[in-house]
Amino acid sequence: MHEVYALIREKSGALFSDDNHLLYIATPSGWDEKAKNLYGQMAAKAGLPIAGITSESRAAFIKAQLDTSSGLPQYISQGAIVFDMGSSTLDFTYLQGGNAPVDYGYDCGASQVEKIMYAEIREKNKDIIAFETQYPKLVAKLLYETRCAKEGVYFDPDIRYKKTVNFEDIVDDEEFEDSKMKFVFQLGELNHMLEEKGYISEIRQAMFDFKNYHIGGYPIKAAFLTGGASRMGFIQALIEDCWGLPQDLIYRDQDPSLTISRGVAEVARSDFRSGGAGNTKQLLNDIVTESDVYTPFVNSLCDKLSEEIIGTVGACVTNFRDNETDVSINDLQAYIEENISEDLNQVGDWAMECYKEAFENQTKEIRDRLDKIVSNYSRQGVRMGNAQVSISSLPNIDMSVIAEQMRQLSSNFTDGGIVNGLVTGIAGAAVGGAIAMLLGGPLAWLIGGGAILANWFFGEEKTEEQKRQEALAKDLDHDQRQQVFDEFNNSWEDICNKIQKAVEQSIRSNYTLQRTIQSQSKATIESYMKECIEQTRLMVE
């Protein structure tokens, strides 16, 4: 690793200095985090300025989606496979919708092909055996020449291939000046050799194994081939046979040998622009964690309910004053209770509207943040449309849990809560315990105590309770009703504040509702993000 890096630096001395670059490396897709971390430690120990590690399948995917002709991205929602034929391993990565990628690798990389070719030629060429004995360190050179021959055969599989490697071009040794290694392959001959040796069967078995035991029989709608060895002619035929794909749904980069390296460069650039190496998944998790639907929801619901109750009380008191016939304070109380009850019957609907509005506003913010991240991984941003996303437009979003909580919230208000419990509870703070006990009822806190009623008590011999009851039941003429109205008007700001406080206390103390909203909203936001990721085709490790 150190020598390769040093050679790259040496050959590109004008391009690289000690402090003007960082390195990203890719590992086979089947490696776990422990193996990746160990690989990174090895790179660092070798002196490489390592900045990040990614998987080869992710690199291939990022590269593929930048190429609009690759065909792969449009099939991600249905199910597609990245087929990465490397030198040492054959790696598959299955992608479907917003689900996590499924990776698995097999020890049947393309280096086995040149080893089979070399073994076949070596068996018939004594010069090769002698050369190995004399120059064991140069066996790798012969294998490299064999690899070049393999690539030549598959570069143009429709013609006969012929190549000769003269040993005198490798070593200056008279013993081997006439020695050579010849490669001659008729059309289809190499494929026949690989079938005979069991290599093609090994790949076929790997493909069936991945389909049947690693992706659980999920559909495969397209395949994207990477790695220079994917040019081998039998690969496409195997995909058609094992995975049932037609030729037009099997895609390959124009230069598959560079797909991974170019993809790694794109991943590195994108990761750094998104906030640092390997942070993309954390950034997306942070969006979910930081998303708060409950706070805007409860604020909106409290404002809505307070506004409606305040409007109802105001309208009732005004109608009480302007009534054409004499009516009592008891009548006013009943009128207020009846109309507030009608309001409270709508709490469930109002709450659902407030929740939907809060959710849709939050997803707008999430969409903006996602766009900034995703735009770094593709040439296009998030294509979710300009309009706000509604909950009903999202698949697999079950709002029944939220709806049930809203129904219960409405029931809690309408079963005597707001008129008797909520309002009476404020009486003590508004007029003092003694006045509350004297007057009682929901109007005590609204009209500021018993001062106005004292003028309408009948006879000193009456008990305080009798006086209170008769005063509340007495029909009041227009002037008396005006006095009641004036009491409301003079205390209106205080009345509004107390209504708002009562509503807030009642709603915000409903911890069951809070937990439900928070948990369901998190699940909803996660589903929404999954939908965004699926539509933007962002592959996150």
Model description:
- The protein is of the alpha/beta class and 541 residues long.
- It contains 22 helices and 9 strands.
- The protein has helices spanning 2-11, 33-45, 56-66, 111-123, 126-134, 139-155, 189-196, 199-213, 233-243, 259-273, 280-290, 294-322, 329-344, 347-374, 400-414, 417-439, 444-447, 451-454, 464-473, 478-490, 492-508, 511-536; strands at residues 23-27, 50-55, 80-85, 90-95, 102-106, 161-166, 180-185, 222-226, 250-252.
- The strands form 3 sheets. Strands 5-4-3-8-9 form a 5-stranded mixed sheet, sandwiched between helices.
- A hairpin with a 4-residue loop joins strand 3 (80-85) and strand 4 (90-95).
- Helix 12 runs antiparallel to helix 13.
- It starts with a helix and ends in a 5-residue tail after the last helix.
- The model is unreliable at 379-397, 414-459 and 535-540 (pLDDT under 50).
- The chain crosses the membrane at residues 417-437, 443-459.
- Keywords: Membrane, Transmembrane, Transmembrane helix.
- InterPro entries: ATPase_NBD.
How would you describe this structure in keywords?
541 residues; 9 strands; five-stranded mixed sheet; alpha/beta; single chain
